[in-house]
Amino acid sequence: MLIHLKQLLTPDELAQGHALLTAPDASWRDGRHSAGTQAVGVKQNQQLAQDSATAATLRALVLGALQRDALVLSAALPRKIFNPLFNRYNSHGADHADPHGDHYGAHVDGAVMHSAASGQWVRSDLSCTVFFSDPQDYDGGELVVHGAPGDAAQRIKLPAGDAILYPGTSVHEVTPVTRGTRLASFLWIESMVRSGEQRRLLFEMDMALLALRQRHGESAEATRLTGVYHNLLRQWANT
Ligand code: NI
User: Fold this and answer.
1) CA atoms of 71 and 66, how far apart (whole Å)
2) 209 CA from centroid of ligand 1 (Å)
3) C-alpha of residue 109 to centroid of ligand 1, in Å
4) How many A from CA of 169 to the centre of ligand 1?
5) From the CB of residue 124, how many other CB atoms can be counted at a distance below 10 Å?
6) Higher pLDDT residue, 162 or 32?
7) 38: CA distance to ligand 1 center in Å?
8) I need a labelling partner for 162 at 20 to 30 A (CA). Which of 65, 87, 100, 134 fits?
9) pTM for this model (two decimals)
């Protein structure tokens, strides 16, 4: 299940975040330092150093936006959110010599992530990318999420300030940036409901109940179905 979070960031947050990410004193490091053994061979990008005041401000900005978003709560049922990280893909490559541009080839994210900032372990049930560059500012740089065998891959390139939630279990990649610069935040969410199928059912029911109430107002049946939703969540959730 892919969930498009439209305008996750307010225009003010986006402007502030973009200014911090493009400031001359922002400290960018080679992204390969944080890749696992499978991913290191296919990764070419840069990551913002985590130990700066800039990074702390940016983390708080993205976390705040995720925590207030009703769609995130309903679709992800978050138990823990990994501290948001930030990456940069340039069109001319990290060393200004590669004609192919920064990219991150097909890989799977580690199942369990350790956050140096919080000391927490987070299981990566869901992955999230928050876009800080507008699509017209760069060519390429699509997030491609591969589905089950036989399913078409999804190609994602969203307006700045929007975000995508996608399964942490997926094979995915970022295609080479051939013009401009792509700035984004990425993070993982551990859900109270471990099973993606159970999460999908709960999300569908929650959205249908919302639409029912908008169309018909409150009713005894809507109340009963809300009870069913919560009783399912009670069975499936680990807090
Ligand atoms: Ni990844």
Assistant:
1) 9
2) 33
3) 5
4) 10
5) 19
6) 162
7) 11
8) 100
9) 0.93
pLDDT single digits (tens) 141-157: 999 999 888 889 999 99
Distance 25 CA to ligand 1 centre (A): 26
Tell me how far apart the alpha carbons of residues 119 and 114 are, in angstroms, rounded to a whole number: 7
In the structure encoding, which two tokens stand for residue 211, read together?
């639409």
Centroid of ligand 1 to alpha carbon of 228 (angstroms): 35
Question: For 34-72, what is each residue's pLDDT tens digit?
Answer: 777 777 778 889 999 998 999 999 999 999 999 999 999
29-35 long-range Cβ contacts below 8 angstroms, 24+ apart: 30/94, 31/87, 31/94, 31/104, 34/85, 35/107
The DSSP secondary structure of 163-202, one letter per residue, reads EEEEETTS-EEEPPEEEEEEEEEEEEEEESS--HHHHHHH
Is the separation of the CB atoms in 142 and 157 below 8 Å? yes
Distance CA(196)–CA(207), nearest Å, equals: 16
Neighbouring CB atoms inside 10 A of 74's CB total 17
CB neighbours (10 Å) of residue 179? 12
Backbone φ, ψ for residue 69 (5° rounding): -85, 120
Distance 108 CA to ligand 1 centre (A): 6
Q: Which residues surround ligand 1, an ion (CB under 5 A)?
A: 109
Give the separation between CA 225 and CA 232, rounded to whole angstroms: 11
